[in-house]
């Protein structure tokens, strides 16, 4: 173990955008585990070897440098190329659909990274089930701030390292209540924390098989599994079916009209195994259209019940 600072530079075969690659790891503007300051990214994580704070910055058209502090620094830097998408495989991705093809031409350097940290991707996804992003991000911020640990090294103020599994499984029910997390989601968080060792081992399996295993857990459905697979395993095909806005965005962008999940699956089927890559391209290229119709999803304040 090395408390840091330690450094590593990763050089790519073309243009690179760490902010674009890492943006899905951010859970809202107040995420205590992720901050973007002056073009650089500060990120915390709990590795097998301990906590880490990482400062990730682009240092050239094709290079990214990371400085890391904490007992998990060496382990984090070992996985840095995967986190930044160095090994992201675009083999077979040649979209015929005009808008997706235009997005690919506009952002050919989009890379899908992987953290290999299942619980760190799964728990915030559980908190985001059936609620608005604002409500879920608040719950994540409150719980991690209270039960996480201070970020090692010269981290920005208020940054925290996510709690380990044994802490998640012992959080009292009233603390979830205060964070506006209903009992169903709270039970799922605790259940997954109890099975953390088995869940982390899924990172050694093919993502499609790991998704099937993950979805077998009570309270973990297709949407939650996809959101986890995208981040933990860099799954370029894990489509977030069941998302409140996704099918609307895809239909409005590609067809000029709203569609449901079933129609979205048919529309994106020719892009398998890169369906999520296509969605990310639409989002980051600026070509996505997502008109709002009707009121936003209303979420009850459980703290008043």
From TrEMBL:
* Keyword entries, A-Z: DNA damage, DNA repair
According to its UniProt record, which reaction does this protein catalyse? Hydrolysis of alkylated DNA, releasing 3-methyladenine, 3-methylguanine, 7-methylguanine and 7-methyladenine
Q: What class of enzyme is it?
A: hydrolase
Gene Ontology biological-process annotations: base-excision repair, AP site formation; DNA alkylation repair
Q: Name one GO molecular function term.
A: alkylated DNA binding
Coiled-coil regions listed in the entry: none
Gene Ontology cellular component terms for the protein in this record = cytoplasm; protein-DNA complex
The record's EC number reads: 3.2.2.21
Protein name in the entry: DNA-3-methyladenine glycosylase II
Q: What is the lineage of its organism?
A: Bacteria, Bacillati, Actinomycetota, Actinomycetes, Mycobacteriales
């Amino acid at each position: 173990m090395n408390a840091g600072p330690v450094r590593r530079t990763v050089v790519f075969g073309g243009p690179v955008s760490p902010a674009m690659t890492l943006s899905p790891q951010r859970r809202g503007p107040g995420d205590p585990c992720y901050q973007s300051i002056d073009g650089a990214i500060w990120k915390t994580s709990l590795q097998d070897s301990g906590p880490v704070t990482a400062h990730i910055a682009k240092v050239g058209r094709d290079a990214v440098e990371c400085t890391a502090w904490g007992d998990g620094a060496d382990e984090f830097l070992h996985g840095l190329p995967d986190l930044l998408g160095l090994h992201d495989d675009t083999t077979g991705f040649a979209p015929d659909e005009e808008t997706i093809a235009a997005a690919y031409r506009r952002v050919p350097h989009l890379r899908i990274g992987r953290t290999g940290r299942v619980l760190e991707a799964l728990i915030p996804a559980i908190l985001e089930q059936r609620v608005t992003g604002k409500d879920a991000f608040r719950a994540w911020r409150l719980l991690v701030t209270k039960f996480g640990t201070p970020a090692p090294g010269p981290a920005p103020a208020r940054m925290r390292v996510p709690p380990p599994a044994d802490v998640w499984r012992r959080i009292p029910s009233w603390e979830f209540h205060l964070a506006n997390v209903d009992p169903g989601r709270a039970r799922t968080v605790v259940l997954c924390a109890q099975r953390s060792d088995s869940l982390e081992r899924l990172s050694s399996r093919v993502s499609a098989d790991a998704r099937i295993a993950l979805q077998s857990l009570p309270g973990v459905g297709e949407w939650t599994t996809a959101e986890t697979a995208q981040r933990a395993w860099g799954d370029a095909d894990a489509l977030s079916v069941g998302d409140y806005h996704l099918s609307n965005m895809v239909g409005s962008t590609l067809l000029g009209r709203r569609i449901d999940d079933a129609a979205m699956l048919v529309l994106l089927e020719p892009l398998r195994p890169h369906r999520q890559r296509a969605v990310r391209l639409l989002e980051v290229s600026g070509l996505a259209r997502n008109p709002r119709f009707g009121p936003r999803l209303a979420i009850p304040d459980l703290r008043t019940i």
